[in-house]
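task queued by scheduler; priority normal; single chain, no ligands, no partner chains; default sampling; output format set to structure tokens
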Amino acid sequence: MYRDKSRYGQDPRKIIRSKTTFEDPLRWNESRMIFTCSWSDFFIKAADAWRNEAWDIISRTPQHTYQILTKRAERIAQCLPADWGSGYENVWLGVSIENQDYMWRKELLLKVSSHVRFISAEPLLGPIEFESLEGISWVITGGESGPKARPMSLDWVRTVRDKCKASDVAFFHKQNGGKSRIEGAWGGRLLDGKIWDELPYSHSLS
């Protein structure tokens, strides 16, 4: 939905909305899952100039589900629209937690009303222990990919999976990570012989 100009050799401090794709959701009648700001961060300060316009499009397209993932959990509350209330039903809010040092992001996320809250532990760069997953609907795990990928222990993933199962939280394992692809995913997707692709409830997906 938005483009990070740093990918094109331009000033990385300036994150602008893409003129070619910004209003596309208004033209899509069929329900879609939209990962918002996949090349940047929806709550980055540089997005303040156009975020309200984005919220307007999101509120006008209830047929779509918007996943909004951020590392800037401290900015979520101040950047929500005035009519947010208990949350837009078509928005999932999530935070990145790469290792235990970033668990504070979960606590900030829990302070914000949302119909679906999720955690992305991808890339998972160290073991994480969730004291509780109350208020969380979905957890994603995955290893780092590419030629400089840092290794991920599958035991770290198993700990997260087991906590999700015990807490009745949807669990999605994206990839094991590494330098090679196996059946389309970096390092493959199998965890203990199974592909984990659970999703939280979404009103807009059939």
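post-processing summary
- The first helix runs from residue 51 to 60.
- The chain has one domain: 2-186.
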